[in-house]
């Protein structure tokens, strides 16, 4: 096999673009590092569902951790300093689940630190019947419940029809 790799010029070289994934202790993808150093972090709730994703705008350049990534031995803790230093500027999205475990709201943090909110509505059979994009923002707070998000939207005036874009689905 090595001879075939050498003869086909498939060996790793400086022109290769590699991407990496770092798993948490439960085997879930916690960090992805793309070929140009972009880092995306995925955080999970206690039920194991994706709670938040953060896309960091600063390229990852920690040499010791890059060596560990190439060797396949990097762990979540290797990214702690990077996350702590760049978390505030990351593009963040949060997923809020209803009582049956379906995504009810998606919150995207804007540059002002507020949440742009979209809602997904379901029928009694669990089929998506509507998507609502709200024009009003609310505070971006990690760990909110669906009831808290709904209350915040009402307080912000986002529940008024003229502050929504509604897409309905028919089956």
Short summary of the structure?
With 171 residues, this protein is α+β, with helices and mostly antiparallel strands. It has helices spanning 2-7, 63-71, 80-86, 146-156; strands at 20-23, 29-33, 39-44, 50-56, 91-97, 103-109, 114-122, 128-139, 164-168.
List keywords for this structure.
171 residues, alpha+beta, 9 strands, disordered N terminus
Q: What's the quaternary structure here?
A: single chain
Rg measurement, Å: 21 Å
Largest sheet: 9 strands, antiparallel
* Secondary structure tally: strands: 9
Instruction: Indicate the overall shape.
Output: elongated
Which residues sit in consecutive blocks of at least 5 with pLDDT less than 50? 1-7
Structural class: alpha+beta
Strand content: 35-45%
From the N-terminal CA to the C-terminal CA, the straight-line distance is 53 Å
> What is the number of helical segments per DSSP (H or I, 4+ residues)?
4
Mean pLDDT comes to 90
Order of helices and strands: HEEEEHHEEEEHE
Share of helix, binned? 10-25%
How do the strands of the widest beta sheet line up side by side? 1-2-3-4-5-6-7-8-9
Describe this structure in words.
The chain has 171 residues and is of the alpha+beta class. Helices cover 19% and strands 36% of the residues. Strands 1-2-3-4-5-6-7-8-9 form a nine-stranded antiparallel β-sheet. Strand 5 (91-97) and strand 6 (103-109) form a beta hairpin. It is elongated. The model is unreliable at 1-7 (pLDDT under 50).
């Amino acid at each position: 096999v090595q001879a075939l790799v050498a003869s086909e010029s498939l060996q790793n070289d400086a022109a290769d673009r590699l991407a990496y994934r770092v798993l948490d202790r439960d085997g879930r993808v916690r960090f992805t590092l793309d070929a140009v150093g972009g880092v995306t972090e995925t955080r999970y709730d206690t039920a194991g569902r994706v709670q938040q994703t953060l896309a960091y705008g600063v390229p990852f350049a920690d040499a010791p951790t890059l060596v560990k990534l190439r060797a396949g031995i990097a762990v979540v803790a290797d990214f702690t300093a990077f996350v702590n230093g760049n978390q505030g500027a990351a593009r963040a999205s949060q997923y809020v689940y209803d009582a049956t475990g379906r995504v009810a709201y998606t919150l995207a943090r804007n540059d002002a630190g507020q949440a742009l909110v979209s809602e997904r509505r379901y029928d009694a059979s669990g089929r998506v019947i509507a998507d609502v994009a709200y024009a009003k923002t609310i505070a971006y707070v990690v760990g909110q419940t669906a009831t808290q998000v709904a209350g915040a939207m009402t307080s912000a005036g986002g529940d008024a029809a003229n502050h929504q874009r509604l897409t309905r689905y028919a089956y």
